[in-house]
């Protein structure tokens, strides 16, 4: 097993928010419909509470999760395996916000371990393909009592008014630390890189196709779940440290994302060499060729390519822009 694997779309249906046509336009063959707003790329993660839904297939009937378990050294490499075991450490998604997402947050690792028995929390980062506005963190300190009142009464306007609103453009990235309340604005299309878990705590669900009182707290009840919320005020400096404007290479994402995952934008005009390592390659624009010791494959915008460690050094030639999403450094 050394060849790159070109992944088809993997879109869980009937999600609780609208979107999906931008993914279809980008991918060419993705699912159509109002409630397919996510494409889970190179996924060894299931949707919360589901046994299989969300997992990527590397070919008909063969799950990536099972293939990695059977031969983790070839897929992940010896250094990764020594430090992290057979855990890929990363999940990649394409996300098309056909409407503003509800205000929500994701727990950090210790909370997820204590209350849910999970290895990971859910830090995430967004690389913006089509821009708009996002809400990120509180602009003032919020008491636990005030937060609970907003949630119980679904006081959405008060919630949004207490949050930072940030305009984002194509090429920007936003790192969202665990615990940080956030909402992606309508019309935004992005590549999301995250810890490999599906753990969301909803602060808002009014007018969405989900019953938050039963499905918004990961089965923990809001008394426990809301303890995962970072209710501190984010300063302007704090906010600036999370948002990278037009970054490339090692500076594509905020430095704080490094312990969780990596994502590197590379613009190729001619030839570029990619070092060995398990990763997901998203072709953002243009066309070219991917070459390994085993052969050459055409690349085009919308392709998502799974690169095993054993593929070795890779050469990309052409005129194109790439996003390479990877685990943290071993």
UniProtKB/TrEMBL annotation:
Domain Mannose-6-phosphate isomerase cupin: residue ranges: 258-325
InterPro entries, per database record: Carb_Metab_Reg_Kinase/Isom (IPR051804), MPI_cupin_dom (IPR049071), RmlC-like_jellyroll (IPR014710), RmlC_Cupin_sf (IPR011051)
Signal peptide from the UniProt entry: none
Gene3D superfamilies: Jelly Rolls
TM region(s), chain numbering: none
GO terms assigned for molecular function: isomerase activity; metal ion binding
Keyword Calcium: no
Taxonomy, superkingdom: Bacteria
Keywords: Isomerase, Metal-binding, Zinc
Pfam family, any one: MPI_cupin_dom
CDD domains xref list: cupin_PMI_type_I_N_bac
Name under which the protein is recorded: Phosphohexomutase
């Amino acid at each position: 097993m050394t060849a790159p694997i070109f992944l088809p779309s993997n879109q869980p249906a009937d999600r609780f928010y609208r979107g999906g046509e931008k993914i279809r336009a980008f991918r060419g063959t993705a699912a159509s419909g109002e409630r397919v707003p996510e494409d889970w790329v190179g996924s060894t993660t299931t949707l919360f509470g589901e046994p299989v839904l969300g997992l990527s297939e590397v070919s008909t009937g063969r799950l990536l999760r099972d293939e990695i378990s059977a031969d983790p050294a070839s897929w992940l490499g010896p250094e990764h395996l020594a430090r992290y075991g057979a855990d890929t450490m990363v999940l990649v998604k394409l996300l098309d916000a056909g409407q503003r997402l509800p205000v929500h947050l994701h727990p950090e690792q210790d909370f997820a371990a204590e209350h849910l028995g999970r290895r990971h929390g859910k830090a995430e980062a967004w690389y913006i393909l089509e821009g708009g506005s996002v809400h990120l963190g509180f602009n003032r300190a919020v008491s636990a009592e005030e937060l609970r009142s907003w949630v119980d009464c679904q006081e959405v306007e008060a919630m949004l008014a207490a949050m930072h609103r940030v305009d984002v453009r194509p090429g920007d990235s936003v790192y969202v630390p665990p615990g940080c309340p956030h909402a992606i604005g309508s019309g935004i299309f992005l590549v999301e890189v995250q810890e490999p878990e599906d753990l969301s705590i909803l602060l808002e669900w009014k007018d969405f196709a989900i019953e938050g009182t039963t499905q918004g707290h990961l089965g923990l009840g809001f008394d426990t779940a809301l303890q995962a919320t970072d209710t501190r005020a984010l300063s302007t400096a704090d906010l600036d440290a999370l948002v990278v404007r037009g970054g490339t290479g090692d500076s594509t994402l905020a430095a704080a994302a490094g312990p969780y995952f990596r994502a590197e934008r590379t613009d190729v005009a001619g030839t570029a060499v990619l070092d060995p390592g398990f990763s997901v390659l998203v072709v953002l624009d243009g066309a070219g060729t991917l070459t390994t010791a085993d052969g050459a494959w055409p690349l085009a915008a919308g392709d998502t390519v799974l690169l095993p460690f054993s593929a070795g050094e890779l050469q990309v030639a052409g005129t194109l822009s790439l996003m390479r999403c990877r685990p943290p450094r071993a």
